[in-house]
TrEMBL record:
It comes from Nitrospirillum amazonense. Pathway: Purine metabolism; IMP biosynthesis via de novo pathway; N(2)-formyl-N(1)-(5-phospho-D-ribosyl)glycinamide from N(1)-(5-phospho-D-ribosyl)glycinamide (10-formyl THF route): step 1/1. Catalyzes the transfer of a formyl group from 10-formyltetrahydrofolate to 5-phospho-ribosyl-glycinamide (GAR), producing 5-phospho-ribosyl-N-formylglycinamide (FGAR) and tetrahydrofolate. This is Phosphoribosylglycinamide formyltransferase. The record marks D155 as: Raises pKa of active site His.
């Protein structure tokens, strides 16, 4: 078994930060419920008290706290409260899963290389919001999602894993978003597994994977008839 950040053998302890529906949180909870998954969800934090994801966590018996950002005097106080809660739960890896607050350089540096995000595009294409409509407007043939370590610049940082989905000619932002979301639910647990198994090393701007890892065949869109 891999030796994890704490220096003790065991499962990697995740803290998951959410703001809303929490479907990626659910994917992580489902993965963590499988006995051989090398990570466990230790704490779920939301900056919104009514985030549906909090109920998903509680339903799975996982500690879930609302820390409404509006209850804090400023961003540093809010982020310090989150950090205290995460550290009290011995969290080793923080997973952003639809967390809708911009994080300060202080928080990003404090959790450097222990903080990952899932973003609904094939980064570095389409950072920011409205990624599905922007992909349609750009006429790309593949779209997808990315799990990456977080750096201060929005939606930047070493890429851990990506999933590509084909764009279909009759797609709307909604149909494309649903296809990407299904891929997100596969990708996030895979990326966490790779990190928890100690197979991901950050080297400069890149995350290097230790193999052996199967590589998919070339995908064409469209394919020759
Ligand atoms: C996902 O599309 C994720 O990529 C983005 O925010 C959305 C969160 O959805 N960062 P959910 O709350 O996990 O359902």
């Amino acid at each position: 078994m891999a030796l994890l950040n704490s220096g003790t053998p065991g499962k990697l302890k995740l803290g998951v930060l959410i703001s809303g529906r929490g479907s990626n949180l659910q994917a992580l909870l489902n993965a963590a419920a499988v006995p051989d998954f090398p990570a466990t969800v230790a704490l779920v934090l939301s900056n919104k008290a009514d985030a549906a994801g909090l109920e998903r966590a509680r339903g799975a018996g996982i500690p879930a706290l609302a820390l409404p950002h509006k209850d804090y005097a400023d961003k540093p106080a809010f982020e310090q409260a989150m950090t205290r809660a995460l550290e009290d739960a011995d969290v080793q890896l923080v997973c952003l899963a639809g967390f809708m607050r911009l994080l300060s350089p202080w928080f990003v540096d404090h959790w450097r290389d222990r903080l990952i995000n899932i973003h609904p595009s094939l980064l570095p294409a389409f950072p920011g919001i409205d990624t599905h409509q922007r992909a349609l407007d750009a006429g790309v043939r593949f779209h997808g999602c990315t799990v990456h370590y977080v750096r201060s610049e929005v939606d930047s940082g070493p890429i851990v894993a990506q999933a590509a989905v084909p764009v279909q000619s009759d797609d709307t932002a909604d149909t494309l978003s649903a296809r990407v979301l299904a891929a997100e639910h596969e990708l996030y647990p895979l990326a966490v597994r790779l990190i928890a198994e100690g197979r991901v090393t950050v080297e400069g701007d890149r995350a290097v994977l230790a193999g052996p890892l199967p590589i998919p065949a070339t995908a064409l869109n469209p394919r020759p008839a």
